[in-house]
Amino acid sequence: MRVIAALLVIALVCQSAMAVTSKSQAKLMMEKINSKMEKSPLGRALKGMVTIATKLGYEYQDLYDAFAALKNQLLENLDNENSLFEYQSALHNNTVSQLNALISNYTNQINDGEAQLNDLQNSLQIYQVNLENAQQALYYNIETRDIYQESQKILQAYYDFATAEFSNADQVIGVAIEKLQEAQSQTNNYIFIHFDFLAIK
Predict the structure, then answer these.
(1) Which of 60, 5, 3, 62 is nearest to 30 (CA)?
(2) Are 33 and 17 in contact (CB under 8 A)?
(3) Which residues form a coiled coil (predicted)?
(4) Three-class SS string for 22-41?
(5) CA-to-CA distance for 169 and 176, rounded, in angstroms?
């Protein structure tokens, strides 16, 4: 872009120089142009081109026309570059917008995934707590079952012992009843004999 601007400036300077009618003014203008052109590599190159062209017989008008054509071509190239720059800028902006949209979409997906992962982690912790509680309850149930079974054994032993004692007591009571009946029978016999004896007297 700086090269294009420099060429346009030089072309405009040449155009101004050619428009001067006075020889003294033209000479002064050419000195200024030469001074400016000597200060840059591009200016020195153009000055060399002009020198070579004049030595080959080209008129300043021809050089002016050539610079005018060059200026028009440079302006056209500049317009094309501006159009291309605008197109590339629009394409760049569109690409950036699409990338930002993709980044935003992926960011949202990542956030959603992290939220789901946190929910799953919380659910896993809840399941783990429930599992530990269930295992603890199962342990208590097993312990309770063991205590119940041991109590059943103790109760069965007491029952067996009570049954045996009851059987023994029943036998003792049976013997006592027999003895009582025997005693009553003997008493009755004694009373009967006693009354008979009294009656005889």
Answers:
(1) 60
(2) yes
(3) 96-137
(4) CHHHHHHHHHHHHHHHHCCH
(5) 10
Question: pTM (2 decimals)?
Answer: 0.38
d(CA 50, CA 42): 12
Intervals of the chain under pLDDT 70: 1-27, 29-30, 33-34, 37, 42-64, 67, 169-170, 188-201
For residue 62, the Cα-to-chain-centroid distance in whole angstroms is: 71
- Class of residue 68 by CB neighbours under 10 A (exposed 0-12, middle 13-18, buried 19+): middle
Long-range Cβ contacts of 52-55 (<8 Å, 24+ apart): none
The Cα diameter of the chain in Å comes to 209
Q: How far apart are CA 138 and CA 34, in angstroms?
A: 106
Residues 134 and 142: their CA atoms lie apart, in Å, by 12
Whole-angstrom Cα distance, residue 52 to residue 61? 15
Nearest 10 degrees: CA dihedral of 130, 133, 134, 135? 120
